[in-house]
Amino acid sequence: MYYLDIVLLINGLMDALILLFASKLLHRRIYPAFLISGALLGEIPILLALFPYNPLVHLSKVIIPLAVAGIGMRARSWGDLWECFLYFTVLTAMTGGAAYAGIVWFGLADTAAGFSLTLDNIWLLLALILVLCLCYRLWGKNNGKQSFFSQVLYRIELDFGGGSVLKTTALLDTGNELRDPLTDKPMILIQENVSLTALPRPIAEFLQCPWRDLADPCSLLWNSSNNIAERVTFIRVKGVNGQSWLPGVRSVRLKITEDGSVREKTVTAVIVPQLLSSDNKFEALLHPDHVCREKYREEIA
């Protein structure tokens, strides 16, 4: 025996829940009045099914979900409507499949077709809501991380002159405050393992000397040939292990791809021995002055 009020209540709650999750996934503002209106529209196919041989039942299976998604999530254009409809339909199919699988797994019925949701087994609906909440939290955490990296990662090219052009990914590091003490240009940090192949041969050979063993490696610059002192410098930095020196290369051409446009700058590249990213998402660190100042202000606001 089926009770119409229970069926309408459960169907309305599921529609409202799916509209809520679809709005969250699309980062849309939730309007309670529109959400409730959309859920109420979802009751129409059930009411039409009460009348035998009603041709509107099949038509409503297409039109009503479209109206539910459009009104429930307050779509403002045709493209917006189809996006809302797609998310609503996919979530409906996923929750329906999960519910049918739970019916068989928990032995509530021999087949999903022989099961009817009542107040006695409404805990299945509550369990489904809990699973959806957990999935949304996991999705939100991963999506937030990806969204953050999409705002601070840049495709760059470094031309050291005389060597090959290094193409890699750089992270906008708001903590990078290094500037060349001679030119006052902001510095970019680049991993040693990726930079050596792009360095001009004289500079690469010079950096192979045991400069790390010296208390002040700057003395090596004045005793070198090939005008190394004009291109190479040593930067004193302070880390967790105390003060140390890092080699830097001046007059490096930096190309940054940002919002589809390419900008060029002349920078000093500091070569660091450690990995900058454990998962290899980036191999260089940009100074805040390397990117557009207006966009940078928006990102840190």
TrEMBL record:
GO molecular function, one term: aspartic-type endopeptidase activity
Catalytic residues identified in the record: 173
Chain segments annotated as transmembrane: 6-23, 30-50, 56-73, 85-109, 121-139
Enzyme class: hydrolase
Keywords recorded for this protein, A-Z: Aspartyl protease, Cell membrane, Hydrolase, Membrane, Protease, Sporulation, Transmembrane, Transmembrane helix
UniProt record similarity statement: Belongs to the peptidase U4 family.
Function noted in UniProt: Probable aspartic protease that is responsible for the proteolytic cleavage of the RNA polymerase sigma E factor (SigE/spoIIGB) to yield the active peptide in the mother cell during sporulation. Responds to a signal from the forespore that is triggered by the extracellular signal protein SpoIIR.
Full protein name: Sporulation sigma-E factor-processing peptidase
Organism annotation: Syntrophobotulus glycolicus (strain DSM 8271 / FlGlyR)
